Each structure stands twice: as structure tokens, then as C-alpha cells.
Amino acid sequence: MTALTSEMPAIEQVEGRTHLEFDDNLLLPLLYGERDQHLDRIERQLGVSVVTRGNRLAISGPVTATGTARLALSQLYDRLKRGQEVNLPAVEAAIRLAAAELADKSPALWREDTAFRTRKRRIAARSPGQSVYIKALRENELVFGLGPAGTGKTYLAVAAAVDLLMTGGVERIILSRPAVEAGERLGFLPGDLRDKVDPYLRPIFDALNDMLPADQLAKRLGNGEIEVAPIAFMRGRTLSHAFVILDEAQNTTPVQMKMFLTRLGEASRMAVTGDPTQVDLPGGTRSGLAEALETLRGIDGIATVRFTDADVVRHELVARIVRAYEAREQSARADEQL
Q: Which pLDDT tens digits describe the chain residue by residue (338 residues)?
């Protein structure tokens, strides 16, 4: 468990309640949120009661939930002391991480190295799975990030790439995607090659826009420091001193995947992201991602991180949607076995 620093509020246990006392009243409106919406979110999600009086706050409820609320609020206050923003997504992330930490599932989730720094913002882990993923991206030359939509697989890979580019760890970023979506092919789309490719790469551009000022992004795209291209353009190249990302990798064929992975050159890193349950290849075509995971299991320097619905950090409804589809698929598999 993360040790409380001098920046943390004083904690006191009295008659079944946990009391926190804060030393900077000016930060409390930011901690509590407009009309106490941050406290309301904590109360609803954890089933606790939070009462404020001056610079003191009392939390009551089930022991485990109270401990989670206490740790979440302490860490959010610490964020404010360090000049970082606290908003509803940060509150939800704090609850998720505090619960995992207290359950000893993912110790030290609040460490500084579980975040990336970009020109626009500091991007930190918002779930236990994201914390593991960030650590893997820092420590391995090839990382597979697998899981449902909304878990931050691609976003965090782009953040890792931008962080390394800014600090000189790599000289360029190369971002790629197979041009296959929901049964459609590039040839069915109107326009020239750029018009055809842009819709497939839009999620990556959105991530880059979140991390780099518009003028810097345009400059780096123009001079080739950041390159965005469909996977077909990777053949025959050796990608050295680069951070290479393949998104939607479940839609590669085995031949494409082998070709892409063998582009890795000197002083380069690679992240491969995808959702193995959302394959849009023609019927009967094996996914290159599935084959790669089987073939490369146990090789040093390669990490595989699997996200679950508990790591979904988009709208909370997305997590419920993911769970509903997983339940439907499990029921269908059970029926097939009868």
C-alpha cells in the first residue's frame, strides 16, 4: 500500500467513522467539486456517507468501502497539492485504484512512473489494468494490449510514444492500422488514398491532438517525426529508433502480422493493440493477432496485458454494455457445448 506523505490529510478513526483533516482550505472546493459532485460520486459508488465541516470530513459506512473512500480522497487531495486537476474522471479513477490497492491486487498504483508526460498533459493510469499496461510499456520492447473498447489501450500506447519522443528516447513515432472495418474495404470509400485512410486512423489522430499542440503536431507530421500509415505501407521497411504502434491488430491476417512484427529495428519499441473478440475479417480468415499471441508466448522482451470490463474508463454505460455482450457470448458457448 502507498505510504501517506506529509501532503496527505490527517486521519483519525472515531466510533466507526473515519475523519480526515485537511491543511489547505483553499483546495477543498476543488476536492469536493461543484455542488459537492465529487463527494456525491464517491457516496453513490461506494455506499458510504460523507459529511463535511470546515476543513474536516467524516466518512461512515462498511469498513472496506470507508477505507476505499479514505484512500481515494487522500490521493485526490495529494493531486491537488501537486498542482494536478481533479475532475469526475479523476474521482472515478481514484475510487477504482484505491479499491484495487486495498485489495492488494496492484500495489503502488499511485507511483509517478505510472504516468506519461506529454506537451499538453500528464496522462496517468485510471484503472489497475492501465497501471500494469503503463509499466509494461516502459519496460518491454514489444507489448500486446488486449481488451474491450474504452480501456485506453491505444490512447496509452500513443502517450508512451509521445513521452519517449519528447524525452529523446526515440526519434519518431509510426502509427498504423489495418484498413478493415466492419466488413468494408478501402476500395468502397470515395476519394483519394488520404481520404480513404483518414477514417481508419481518426482515433489515433484524436489521441495525438490530446497530447500535442496543433502547431507541433502539424510540424511533426510534416517532417516525418510522426508518421501515420496503413499496415500495407510497412512492407520492406526496417523501423529503427522509433516507437511503432499497430492498432486494431485483430483485423490483421497472419501474413500481415508477421510482416509487421519483423519490421522492428534497432532501438525501437512496438505496441500492438486490439480486441480479439471484435474481428472484422472475412469469414474463415484467421486473425493475425490470435496467431501471434500463440506463437510468441513466453518470449523474453514481450509483454501481454489483458484488460477487462473493470478497466473501461469511458462512460460508465460502456462497461455495462461490455459485460452484457460477454454474458451473451458465454451463454452461447455454453449452449454449443450441450
A: 333 444 567 665 554 578 899 999 999 999 999 999 999 999 998 999 999 998 899 999 998 899 999 999 998 998 898 888 888 888 988 888 888 888 765 545 555 556 788 888 888 888 888 988 999 999 999 999 999 888 999 999 999 999 999 999 999 999 988 875 544 454 555 554 445 556 667 778 888 999 999 999 999 989 999 998 778 788 888 889 999 999 999 999 999 999 999 999 999 999 999 999 888 888 888 999 999 999 999 899 999 999 988 888 766 676 677 778 877 877 776 766 66
Closest CA to 200 of 243, 234, 229, 235: 229
Q: How far apart are CA 200 and CA 178, in angstroms?
A: 8
Distance CA(162)–CA(178), nearest Å, equals 21
Tell me the pTM: 0.76
149 phi and psi, to 5 degrees? -60, 145
**C-beta neighbour count of 164 within 10 angstroms:** 19
- For the stretch 65-104, what's the b/e string if a residue is b when 16 or more beta carbons lie within 10 angstroms of its beta carbon? bbbbbbbbbbbbbbbbbeeeebeeebbbbbbbbbbbbeee
Nearest CA-CA partner of 42 in 13, 77, 1, 10: 77
In degrees and rounded to multiples of 5, residue 62 shows phi and psi of -55, 145
Least Cα distance to 259 among 233, 286, 285, 297 occurs for 233
